[in-house]
Amino acid sequence: MKTDELRESYLSFFEEKGCVRRPSDVLVPRDDRTVLFTPAGMNQFKNQFLGVGKLEFTRATTCQMCLRTGDIQNVGVTPYHHTFFEMLGNFSFGDYFKREAIHWAWEYLTDKKWLGLDSNLLSVTVYQDDDEAYNIWHDEIKVPSNRISRENEHENFWPAGAPSLGPDGVCGPCSEIFYHPNGGKDNVEIWNLVFTQFNRVGDPPDNLKPLPKQNIDTGMGLERTASVLQGVPSNFEIDTLKKLCLAAGDAVGTNYQFESAAGRPLRRISDHVRAVTFSIHEGVNPGSEKESYVVRQLLRRALLEGYLLGKHEPFLFQIVPSVVEIMKAPYPDIAKTVENAQRIIKEEEEQFLGVIGKGLTRFEGFVKNAEKNGLSKISGEEVFDLHQTDGFLIELTEALAAKNNLSVDRAEFDTLMQRHKEGSGSGAFLDSVMSEGPLTALHKTTSDTVFKGYETTEADAKVVGIIAEDRLVESLVEKGHAHPVVLVLDQTPFYAEAGGQVGDTGFIESDDIHFEVINTQKNGGLILHIGHLLKGKLDQGQTLKATVTEPRRSGIQRAHSATHLLHHGLQSVLGQNAMQRGSKVEEDMLRFDFSHSKSLTSEEISQIEDIINQRISEGANVTTELMKLQVARDLGAMALFGEKYPDNVRVVRMGDFSIELCGGTHLSNTGQVGLCKIVSEEPVAKGVRRIHALTGPKALEKTRNTEKLLQEIAVQLKAPRVDELPHRIAHLQDELRETKKQLLKFSSKSLASTADKLLENAATVNDVKIVAYYAKDASRDQLRELADHLRKKGKHVALILGTVIDDKVALMAAVNQYLVKQGLKAGDCVKAAAQVVGGGGGGRPDMAEAGGKHPEKLEEALSTGSSYYRNKLEG
């Protein structure tokens, strides 16, 4: 069975069991701060497992793309480890439980209609205290007792070790299914059934409390199961990944064979490029923080594998089309970002190749030092310096060290890294998982907030939740305003921050109550009105009037509609690869990030701005419609790759030129934008540019301020009209150039005069005049000119000159050609002088330059240079 066939087979089987087929969640879940990448199929169902919000279905099945780096050192080494992989899963939220989960798993694996595996080659494990699961396997499925093993909480419980070690919260026993090919010689775990049936509270004993609703979370590795069905020794030998390994071999220039020496590095390369391609597709480019750091780490590890195989030029980008070819059936959108992914990967390769040689040389020095001194560990200080100076990520250095049977002092490195982060202001990301809080409790007792803001900016609403000091309270009289209060209403006209659009502000009030909303956010289906109670007393159940600040909302709508026009303008001028990568929309101000490899020319910016304002002048209708996600995609609606969309999406159309998925608030026609002015364009990340623009009154104000500034400049430059400014500036530049010429003439005369005085007062040794002079406030060019004057005027002269420029010492030594023939070298003189000021330098025998970092020692340095000449001449 091919990999794509297995994926479809699994999902179809569980659909027959009443599970709702759900699409894979995004790989980078930006709305979940507990993880950087989606690590498992259950992540998109956290709310369902917690009982948060309305349940639209109680059974589900998915094939989820995942990314994990915990076992990265094993990728390509073992048969089954990956960073990017796909997880087949079926889930129950208070619906079916152990019996169905076990029976269905066995049916799918052994029934000839489905996978048809030999049941005699399957074994199972259960948690040591889970008699219920054991009995189902033994008494109902008829698995012999010698093929059922009971394991401890560290092997067969989720989270591992939870009963004894925690954390508190939802947990449960597991049951794993193993396949034993080759008569039982090998052992492959293919499926894990998790029975979340407990809430852990405190330490043992009796700390596992039964949940009111029991859940099922299962996971079966797609690639691993495909390798079993295809009878190959590794996941990397299945029909899809074998093609990728072969493509990696072609890119490196090495033939891929599973057992060859190049097999392991090529498997790692293929795995990492697949992970990176999907990450970049979702807008995560190589960088130094969080998800971007992981992407950079994967790229550099893969590049180094190829480098050590002899490939010393960019090659990873060539593998991207092969990734797309094997993955486009389940993930067709990946084909739309091939060129962008290739460009970003190639740029990262070129950057790293620029330092990799130097870094490897330094690393080899660390290894030799360890061998020389009988050490088994490379110091954290050396590794940190390699990380900071040469861009070698710690994980990369650890991998290289292991190849030399060495370890890295990780504790010392982590300490130095933490100091660096504290010094640079970098913060850590949250790592709590599924924690309870006032919002979680509110989700369990309250329906989602009904949003009325598309139709109106005011509505009567009932207070269903009050949160103060991180606690749910039934009433509130706010005495101070140290911390904001959160109000949750049954319905609201307030737009909660989402999709780049900022949250609304306004008031929630009655005759006796006045609550100011300073921000609006969203948590699941609840809209949170954040602010302060300025007057009166709030009680749950009160009906109040919620009113959005209308002028601000209108300005936000102008800016948001303008982002769609800007997106249209960018793609019209730059092409379809100029895709949105993010935005922020405020009152008549917008920020728009888009994929593009180079800065925009002034002509391109003007073209884009012209297109936007042309569309504004047309006054095209802006319409919205709710439809199924797939229907919207079929219509060609633009969506952000990596954005998580619901089944039913809101589609915003502008005339016949723009159609996008968007949940924000908009104008009714483009003419209401009034005016749009691009004010800046800049880079923000590798392959990503950012445009700032203004709309409506702020765009007009910007234009007027610019005109006013030009008028003021015209007055200052004595130009009769603004349009004469270029001519006036050109005339002033001519005057400036002429003035500089005069100054240079004057300066040259002064230097010639200085040279005369220096030669007149110079010490003479064997008919050679020795000049040592501190030329205060001189430039390097002036030092050279003075040296030329001295050598021309003096028949035999040896000189050393110095000055201080920007708190750094500049030195220059020179001698006549006659003296060079006598063995006197300017380079030796300047080197001796430079050592005194903590620097170095060199040059030709007749003229040499140097620098230093101790200006206070310049006089001593000049004296040292003079002594060098004297000693050589007297010697």
UniProtKB/TrEMBL annotation:
The lineage of its organism: Bacteria, Pseudomonadati, Planctomycetota, Planctomycetia, Planctomycetales. The gene is alaS. It is found in: Cytoplasm. Binds 1 zinc ion per subunit. The keyword Protease does not apply. Zn(2+) binds at H560, H564, C662, H666. GO terms for biological process: alanyl-tRNA aminoacylation. This is Alanine--tRNA ligase. Belongs to the class-II aminoacyl-tRNA synthetase family. InterPro entries: aa-tRNA-synth_II/BPL/LPL (IPR045864), Ala-tRNA-lgiase_IIc (IPR002318), Ala-tRNA-ligase_IIc_anticod-bd (IPR018162), Ala-tRNA-synth_IIc_core (IPR018165), Ala-tRNA-synth_IIc_N (IPR018164), Ala-tRNA_ligase (IPR050058), Ala_tRNA_ligase_euk/bac (IPR023033), DHHA1_dom (IPR003156). Residues 851-860 have a biased composition (Basic and acidic residues). Its EC number is 6.1.1.7. Keywords: Aminoacyl-tRNA synthetase, ATP-binding, Coiled coil, Cytoplasm, Ligase, Metal-binding, Nucleotide-binding, Protein biosynthesis, RNA-binding, tRNA-binding, Zinc. GO terms for cellular component: cytosol. SUPFAM superfamilies: Class II aaRS and biotin synthetases, Putative anticodon-binding domain of alanyl-tRNA synthetase (AlaRS), ThrRS/AlaRS common domain, Translation proteins. Its cofactor is Zn(2+). It comes from the Bacteria. It comes from Gimesia aquarii. PROSITE patterns: AA_TRNA_LIGASE_II_ALA (PS50860).
